Amino acid sequence: MKKELVIALDAKGRKVVVINEILFKGKRNPPWDKVEQYLKRYIGKVITVADTGEEIYIGPDFPDEYRGSEDTIKTRGPYARAKANAAQGIEELITIARKTSETENLKDKNSKKARYGWYRYLTRFALPVVNETNTITHYNVYLATLIVRKDYKKKLYLYDVVHVKKESSFNFIL
Fold it and tell me: What is the mean pLDDT of the chain?
């Protein structure tokens, strides 16, 4: 399957991953089991963040965490669909991400996996809005946070994508 996405610039010159196809639909919740299966194709990949040159690995725990995290469980409606469809552009979302913070690991649950703490990166993506005739009228732009853990070997691993929120001031038109 060919990915239908591109990295574009918005009116303010900021990068945004434009995803042209809605793969995961659902009235209340998308089919998270299908999203998890889709994400398994990324396991083993290493993606470089353009701004920092840091390499982020996709480990085998990522698809399950993406599907079953606290953030995913409490996310409903259009934000859940946005998070599900963002899965199509994981590599590009990492590439354009901007590092915002580093924190220590505070939970025993992740004491081995995230021994050297957590990084947060902001990233942006756009999803199409279609009319009755299935024509794209515009794109809604979303902001998301990538959660990245630093393991005992000091490698960075993508852990989850959280806090997916629509940027209310943007409707992106290609």
Answer: 85
* Domain, as residue range, for 24: 5-172
Strands 15-19 and 118-130, bridge-based pairing: parallel
Which three-class secondary structure state does DSSP give residue 84? helix
99-126 tens-digit pLDDT = 887 666 555 556 556 567 789 999 999 9
- Per residue in 46-69, pLDDT tens? 999 999 999 999 999 999 989 877
Cα 35 to Cα 42, 47, 109: the distances in Å are: 12, 20, 24
- Distance, CA of 55 to CA of 15 (rounded, Å): 19
Token pair, residue 160, equals: 């989850």
**Structural domains in the chain (count):** 1
Structure tokens at 169: 């001031």
Q: Do 161 and 83 touch, CB atoms closer than 8 A?
A: yes
- Mean pLDDT per 10-residue segment, the chain (174 residues): 74 90 82 94 96 95 86 76 94 95 62 72 93 88 93 88 82 54
Q: Which positions ≥6 away from 21 have C-beta within 8 Å?
A: 4, 88, 128
Q: What is the pLDDT of residue 115?
A: 62
Q: Is the CA virtual torsion 124, 148, 76, 36 positive or negative?
A: positive
